[in-house]
Amino acid sequence: MPRPTQAFIDLSALAHNLGVVRQYVPCSRIMAVVKADAYGHGLLHTASALKDVDGFALLELDAAISLRDAGYQQPILLLEGFFSTEELALFEQYRLSAVIHHSEQIAMLSDSKHHNLDLFLKINTGMNRLGLAPEQFPQIMKALTDHPGIDSITLMTHFASADDPLEEDEVFQQLQYFEAITQNHKYPHSLANSAAIIRYPVTHADWVRPGIMLYGASPFADKTASELNLKPVMTLSSKIIAIHDLKIGDRVGYHGLFQADRPMRIGVVACGYADGYPRHAPTNTPVLVNNQRSRLLGRISMDMLAIDLTEIRDVELNSPVILWGNGMPVDEVAHQAGTTSYELLCALAPRVEKIAMTQP
Ligand SMILES: Cc1ncc(COP(=O)(O)O)c(C=O)c1O
After folding, report:
1. Helix or strand or coil: residue 240?
2. Are the CB atoms for 203 and 196 separated by under 8 Å?
3. What is the pLDDT of residues 216-272, one digit of tens each?
4. What is the CATH number for 255?
5. How many other β-carbons are positioned within 10 Å of the β-carbon of residue 32?
6. How many helices (H) and strands (E) in the chain?
7. Catalytic residue among 51, 142, 223, 254
8. For the whole model, what pTM was predicted?
9. Do 157 and 303 lie in a common domain?
10. Which of 49, 128, 151, 225 could disulfide-link 230, Cβ–Cβ 3.0 to 4.6 Å?
């Protein structure tokens, strides 16, 4: 029997969540963000469940080529663009769209003879991560519109805090800034991530770029995924591989971080930080065992973790444990572990088998 640590990827949940995105943006085109191996879910089966989207966005060139090779015809956008003139040949060959965020990329374009390029010009409206400074915009637009090899231009920006209700002013400032800079140009716009799709209809524009909501997690700290009608896509599951009865004073795991203050029963689960479970998740982080809520005890090891079985009914060796997913929101686990669902999902380790499935 193989090690029982597996990630089930529910393709019907992906399709359902895409339907939720569509309800929010009936008039915009949807570019599904599938970077980092589709947020840890596995690129190709994720793409198959999202095959009706209008485009894909990611930032790994080999993954973009594998999508094109798999037959997807829609635009595939590289969110960090190209890093060298040599790469530009692949952009032309595979009809990949590139984000332009830096004047060095304009220099590479000017030196190249490539054609049929589709560009998304990214403007820094306040996040100060990627994007051209607004004062560079007129000159760069001129360089692009004069370039014979460019088929299309889309203007884009990215919000720093659309997920935070206390940062509403910041979102509107970025939006106003973007509109002021781009107002004399007729090109399509792309601004909204998941949080902006849900909270700020005024940002929807021509293309939206949902990521986390497609995977069934909430972009907000103050709203759960189920309140947003999103279904979890990844269920990380394993089994109990050892059971111990503890006396008062017995300690659990490395450095005995947990100590029993009453007689207890614990289970050892085949899942650890080398599987992508966060090592810093503390005692009391929730898990689901035999469909009952329980909690972690002590320190996470590389390959195992311990859970409390004292109050759990009908539990035995090989009883199923869900670390996150169906019945155990990844957002709740992430919150307990002091991180986000984005990090947990993307950190799923390659050694965990991913099993794509469709719910009836
Ligand atoms: C440029 C860009 N657009 C869209 C997204 C999708 O964001 P989210 O997963 O919050 O929807 C990301 C993700 O980080 C991004 O970097």
Report:
1. strand
2. yes
3. 999 999 999 999 999 999 999 999 999 999 999 999 999 999 999 999 999 999 999
4. 2.40.37.10
5. 27
6. 11, 18
7. 254
8. 0.96
9. no
10. 225
